[in-house]
Amino acid sequence: MLISDLRIFQAVATVESLSAAARQLDITPMQVSRRIAALEEELGVRLFHRTTRSVSLTAEGEAFMPYANTMTEAEDSARGELSPSPVNAAGVLRMTAPSVFGQSIVLPMLSRLLESHPELSVDLDLSDRVVDIVGQGLDLALRVAPLVDSELVAKKVTANPRLICASAGYLERYGRPSCLADLAPHHCILLEAVPRWPLIVDGKLQRKRLQGRVTTTSVDAVRAAAVQGLGLAMLTYWDVFQQLRDGSLVQVTLQDAHMEELSVWAVTPTRRYVPTRVKVFLEALEAELESIRRIGP
């Protein structure tokens, strides 16, 4: 099985046209047709539905695509590792990130990353839900939620502790809690996915139910409600680092409890054959976070 045939297969599947794939690859449509036919013969299945106007993947073609991606990415990674010259990332980086982290950290760094790697493009899904990266065909997921056991590979990028915060105006009006018992009368802004706040008390994790006048499914909405003075919020550091710096939110610490320690994790489908585009992105992300930390609170 030739890697060049797999790249032709990928191109046809992407543009859904033999002639368009030929133009993209700078070969003739006849060559594309012959190489697809050879690949189908080798695999013993039909990979595409063909009509006079369009080309689309069969069920077998859909099933084969992840394997084709793995093999072409393995070649790219090997060439990148062995190349004596600086590596330029290419292709489409398909990734997902939490909405607030993506807007605050990932999006601002993309202009510099793409300028450094002109052949790279990014398909970014911003979502607070846990996405099936294997099923969705993604290269990378950035996650801040506690990780569950899985066959995925996770690398810690940076610490991201939970913290309690509120606007200065809210604290002036309702008082600043200093211990766990002080939280009871306060208005708390609740995230639907975390109805009980995880707190470490005497070294043990407790999940405390609090009163909430505002409940939302969005981390961004929790942050916005806190800035507007609607109550206390439990968020992570990288959700609110900008607001803590500009004073629109103030961190609240408790004498008898502290918040759960989380991290930002880079999750990939496999440890082997990590595409160069993923490595380049993670290097840029770590550099971005380090530059923010150097600025200080």
Please give a structural write-up.
The chain has three domains: 3-68, Arc Repressor Mutant, subunit A; 91-152 and 266-295, D-Maltodextrin-Binding Protein, domain 2 (3-Layer(aba) Sandwich), CATH 3.40.190.10; 159-262, 3-Layer(aba) Sandwich (D-Maltodextrin-Binding Protein, domain 2). Helix content is 42%, strand content 24%. It has helices spanning 3-15, 18-25, 29-43, 59-82, 99-116, 168-174, 219-227, 237-246, 276-295; strands at residues 48-50, 55-57, 91-97, 120-126, 140-143, 153-159, 162-166, 188-191, 196-201, 204-209, 214-216, 232-236, 250-252, 258-259, 263-268. The longest helix is centred in the first third of the chain and has 24 residues, at 59-82. The strands form four sheets. Strands 4-3-5-15-6 form a five-stranded mixed β-sheet, with helices on one face. It has a five-stranded mixed β-sheet with strand order 11-8-12-7-13. A three-stranded antiparallel β-sheet has the order 10-9-14, with no helix packed on it. The protein has nine helices and 15 strands. It is an alpha/beta fold and 297 residues long. The chain starts with a helix and ends with a helix.
